[in-house]
Design a protein that fits this description.
The protein is of the alpha/beta class. It folds into two domains: 213 residues, Glycogen Phosphorylase B (Rossmann fold); 180 residues, Glycogen Phosphorylase B (Rossmann fold, 3-Layer(aba) Sandwich), CATH 3.40.50.2000. Helix content is 37%, strand content 21%. It has 13 helices and 17 strands. The strands form three sheets. Strands 1, 2, 5, 6, 7, 8, 9, 10 and 11 form a nine-stranded mixed beta sheet that branches. It is globular.
């Protein structure tokens, strides 16, 4: 099989015996879409090229002759609109320049992003016999509108998504919510809900039960930004500690534009001694060690696809308390494997979060039951199981034996 894998903003270094990517190619360590590297005759990666080594995800040696990287040299987008347009043009130029490498690919796979439609359109011309799979992993039109408040840009994203689905041979949606919102109108296309996870069977905590201890460690994992509603975290900690007198601490894993403001707010509220910042953590074992020291995952987002941290937390027996963003109920069943808190834009439902934290701390048997439920549930969302589904779908689409 010959694959063209379009990435969002991945930066690649390709040497004689090594491939480095700034992000995962896929969630399997030595596979893509359920296929081992050696099963591919050719892999063409569309992203950004780097001429220098960098700290990233390293892929197997001995792949030089079957992997190609197509795209412009990496450049930071400092001026969002202008630099993004320049990168679009340069990427399309590189795709056309390397059309001889691309013309015989069997499968083009890509997660949706704003200018994917243009790449799909050009690749449809270059490799007319290829099958195209689009993976919609988030509500990008709505999320970008909330960030920028630009209706014209939202309309552009809606059009781009609509026509990307039209150009695809098969479209995958990470949640039922996204499937119903964007997929159902394309009743004549092959469309399906296809989940995503990076949890392996061996990541699941099966040796012992997760139990509460004192202090109860809350943990937030994700980007520190406005759309993640992270300024609610100091208010949750303040009410839990100062009003309800709960013995809790907070661990924050991630980074983002609001990190400085978040740190200053904890300082202002005299809560800094109860908070640990870890920054971005790429190493899964290090993340798991932090999750193993924690008891409750707090997620405050206004909008998500299906957060991978749900499955990471489930695997380590944590109980999840999350805002009820669209699609959250597909993973978190309220009162069974966590709690859903209703939240609107510019709304901080602090009392509801603290109420659930207090409920779990004062009812350790309830905590242990929900923790056990999560460990059982996540067994259905391992990368091994999902990898089998990806592989089956690709083989059916390409009519492979």
């Amino acid at each position: 099989m010959r694959l063209c894998f379009i990435t969002l903003k991945n930066k690649f270094y390709l040497g004689n015996d090594i491939l480095i990517s700034s992000n995962f190619l896929w969630y399997e360590e030595s596979k893509i879409l359920g296929f081992r590297f050696e099963e591919f005759e050719k892999i063409v990666l569309v992203g950004f090229r780097s001429n220098e080594l960098f700290d990233g995800y390293v892929y197997p040696k001995g792949i030089k002759n079957k992997i190609f990287v197509i795209g412009p040299n990496f450049r930071v987008e400092k001026r969002y609109v202008i630099d993004r347009l320049v990168n679009i043009f340069l990427t399309l130029k590189e795709i056309w320049k390397n059309r001889q490498i691309l013309k015989d690919v069997d499968l083009v796979f890509a997660p949706f992003f704003e200018y994917l439609f243009f790449e799909f359109l050009l690749l449809r011309f270059i490799c007319p016999n290829a099958k195209f799979i689009l993976y919609v992993m988030g509500d990008y039109p709505e999320l970008n509108y909330r960030k920028k408040g630009n209706l014209i840009y939202k309309f552009f994203l809606l059009l781009s998504l609509y026509f990307s689905i039209k150009l695809s041979s098969e479209s995958w949606f990470i949640s039922e919510y996204l499937f119903k919102k964007y997929g159902k109108k394309h009743s004549n296309k092959r469309i399906a809900v296809v989940r995503s996870s990076k949890i392996k069977y061996t990541d699941i905590l099966v040796t012992h039960k997760k139990q509460l201890s004192s202090p109860c460690n809350l943990v937030y994992v994700g980007r520190i930004s406005e759309d993640k509603n992270t300024m609610m975290l100091p208010l949750i900690l303040k009410e839990a500690v100062k009003k309800e007198k709960l013995n809790v601490r907070l661990k924050i894993v991630g980074d983002g534009p609001l990190k400085g403001l978040l740190e200053n707010t904890f300082n202002y509220l005299k809560l800094s001694s109860l908070v640990d910042f870890y920054g971005w953590i790429r190493d899964k074992e290090k993340l798991f060690s932090i999750l193993d020291e924690s008891h409750i995952l707090i997620l405050t987002s206004l909008s998500e696809g299906t957060p991978l941290v749900f499955f990471e937390s489930f695997a380590r027996g944590l109980v999840v308390i999350t805002t009820h963003f669209p699609g959250a109920e597909e993973i978190v069943e309220d009162g069974v494997n966590g709690y859903l808190v209703k939240c609107k834009s510019n709304d901080f439902p602090v009392d509801e979060f603290v109420e659930k934290i207090k409920l779990l701390i004062t009812n350790p048997e309830l905590y242990e039951q929900i923790s056990s439920n999560n460990i059982e549930k996540v067994k259905y969302w391992t990368i091994e199981k999902l990898g089998e589904e990806y592989r089956r779908r690709v083989k059916n689409l390409l009519e492979l034996k």
